[in-house]
Prior knowledge:
Blueprint: E1 5-10, E2 13-18, E3 21-22, E4 28-29, E5 35-36, E6 43-49, E7 52-57, E8 60-65, E9 67-68, E10 72-74, E11 77-84, E12 87-92, E13 95-96, E14 109-113, E15 116-124, E16 132-139, H1 141-146
Antiparallel strand pairs: 1-2, 2-3, 4-6, 5-6, 6-7, 7-8, 9-11, 10-11, 11-12, 12-13, 14-15, 15-16
Amino acid sequence: ARRIAYPAKINNQWHVIEQGEKGPTLEAIIPGSLVFSPKKQQLIYRAKSGQLDRFYIDQQMVGEFDEMSNPIFDKGHIAWAARLGNNWHLYIDGIANPTAFSNLVGPPLVTTKYGRFMTMIQQNHSTVPAYSRLVMDKLTTEEALANVNPNSIK
């Protein structure tokens, strides 16, 4: 079945319209964020709420973050990196990896290879002279789910 979705401003409020049904009221939709997953199984988009990024999957908010990377898909799963306060986490299917990163230069890059999601980060160190290094955290979806804190799921 075909799925159709588009952003619309109705009575000065933003919504994502999917199959003719109006989604939640939004302050602003982040341009270019409204996409379907590769097999058209999920509709995802990001919206602004004050200073926060809200992330939606199929019209349901799955997280509210200070900052987040663009999400990626792999074998029916979705992953992204997001920052709350000073800490960045890798999220897979809405579940936060317990490993946090801080003191980053820019947002992490989330990528996938051989069915594993990877977070590539660049950290700034306070030693003199200052230097940067690249760290990779590899995590399968099953590993992420095995370490999940149920309270981390919104």
